[in-house]
Specification:
The structure is a homodimer. By secondary structure, the first copy, chain A, is α/β, with parallel strands linked by helices. Helix content of chain A is about 25%, strand content about 25%. Chain A has a seven-stranded mixed sheet. In chain A, strands 7-8-9-14-15-16-17 form a seven-stranded mixed sheet. In chain A, helix 3 links the parallel strand 5 and strand 6. In chain A, helix 9 packs parallel to helix 10. Chain A is globular. The mean pLDDT of chain A is about 95.
């Protein structure tokens, strides 16, 4: 599949014996990225059999502990396992101070190069690009500076109709141009418009991650039409005042954003530790936006959607 | 019992999906103390049903992550659960910087007062005293500054022979003096020597915690005669060079220290992640010091020793 999101932890501030704080691993066309890294994330990665060293980049939304206290342990373990590959870390500027200090006090010089990318807040910005994906920030409204992240698969190239390659004698060196949209002139000087010799590429998907935030309609425009939106839903609707006060959202508010943004699917998580059952979260959200699912620990979301496999309980 | 030590985590540097880094909770006459606090300790405390808020003081041996990366999460959770009781934290001086910085960046002012006690290195020092226990440092030899901790139950008071209280008409206001060793003169002017009206107190026990350290005979004098010694045993004897190089110990070295110090029992832990079975650690240690046990996760050690209960597998 194009994008796969695995929920490593979905609890808000206070972890319990069996519920870990926020972290998600995203697989986009075989590349791995980590979003947030609460305490215990490295154990959760192992539990879900994600190879730590395959993670290319880590994105930290904000400096509340349930979103980053596991980061120093993870990068330290990558070092102890002898990582050589560079690692990109994106997060609030002050995060670097914390990591630098803890590495210095342990007298640790990491075995690999890490590139820290301090993020701005307030306006959406493209922060990362590789061959498969472009990531940008989603400004959120929390008690301290906080960004969500939008991952968009890059537009894929058109596919040359295989049977025409020998028929029209298309030379290999023309393949890239044609995939990029160029027409082709054959040996006899006949022009073949691109549309006649290629097929549409596979669709590109997008995933928007929004945690933590109070209800904030300015998110809508940024995540408009995303195939999958994760939106925090710390509380039920009867605690809307508490949500407002703590700069969090209710399940209904998350669904309202999903509906306004006309996303494909909504995943809700970051549950307050006061709840032991999330069926009311789901009910309240579904009343507003039907295509909602709980982002509980271990859950895997796939784009395009596939039929349930082992771990998936769609 | 007088002292109870519960092993919350016993792995060295690299945690795995099921093995947590170092932390131990000690119960001494109903008071709780925590030694070291690797990542995930707060989840382990909950798993072992230890109430976080009952912990009076935390002792951190050194600033390698597997011994303290869980501390900021734990003190943060204590805050979020509304702790009011003061908390004492003992550790290397620089530890305060890390905690201060992380609290500042999260804009968190803890709900309780925490008293940070920076420790010295090099000489054993008494660092903590309350009505039940006296704790002192055990200087260790590791790659960075590191202390072990010796917990000694305070000498208990003598017990007045109950049947003599009415017989000799001993007034309540004399009880404390007599328990402290005073003689008693009754209404008729007869002197009753303390030894005739009291019984010996219950014995006082001691627990010595030594992690992390290379083989270091100067420990022997400090832990001499301890009822229970925990000594790290990261490696087996065939990796003695690696132990020396990384400033760790082998199981046999741990046992040698136990034997020289004539302790009551030895517990070994802090196993390298390369081992999945610790029976060879036990075998190598027992060959030198028979009364050795593995300090695996969840194991409970009691002083005085009691017959196995639910969780104990002595």
């Amino acid at each position: 599949m194009a994008i796969q999101v695995t929920i490593l932890g979905a609890n808000s501030a206070i972890p319990t014996a069996t519920r870990f704080p926020t972290s998600q691993v995203i697989d986009i066309n075989q590349s791995r990225y980590l979003i947030d890294c609460g305490e215990g994330t490295q154990m959760q990665l192992r539990r879900h059999r994600v190879r730590l060293q395959r993670i290319k980049a880590i994105f930290i939304s904000h400096l509340h502990g349930d979103h980053y206290f596991g980061l120093i342990g993870l990068i330290n373990t990558m070092h102890m396992l002898g990582r050589q590959t560079e690692l990109d870390i994106f997060g609030p500027p002050d995060l670097k101070q914390v990591l630098d200090l803890q590495l210095k006090l342990a007298d640790t010089k990491l075995s690999y190069k890490w590139n820290f990318h301090p993020l701005n807040f307030g306006e959406p910005e493209v922060i990362y690009e590789d061959t498969g994906v472009t990531a940008s920030t989603i400004p959120l409204d929390h008690r301290i500076d906080c960004n969500g992240f939008l991952f968009q698969e890059n537009k894929k190239k058109r596919k040359i109709r295989r049977e025409l390659i020998p028929e029209l004698n298309i030379p290999v060196e023309q393949f890239q141009n044609i995939k990029a949209g160029a027409d082709f002139v054959d040996d006899k000087g006949v022009l073949h418009p691109n549309s006649t010799i290629t097929e549409d590429p596979k669709p590109s998907y997008s995933y928007a991650y929004c945690s933590d935030t109070k209800y904030n309609e300015s998110i809508v425009e940024v995540v408009k039409g995303a195939d999958l939106l994760y939106h925090e839903a710390t509380f039920l609707e009867d605690m809307i005042k508490r949500a407002e006060f703590t700069h969090h959202s209710t399940a209904k508010q998350a669904a309202t954003i999903a509906k306004m943004a006309e996303v494909g699917q909504l995943a809700i998580g970051h549950y307050s530790a006061r709840y032991t059952d999330f069926s009311d979260h789901l009910k309240e959200a579904k009343a507003v936006f039907e295509n909602t699912q709980l982002a509980t620990e271990g859950k895997v979301f796939s784009l395009p959607r596939v039929k349930p496999k082992k771990k998936e309980v769609e």
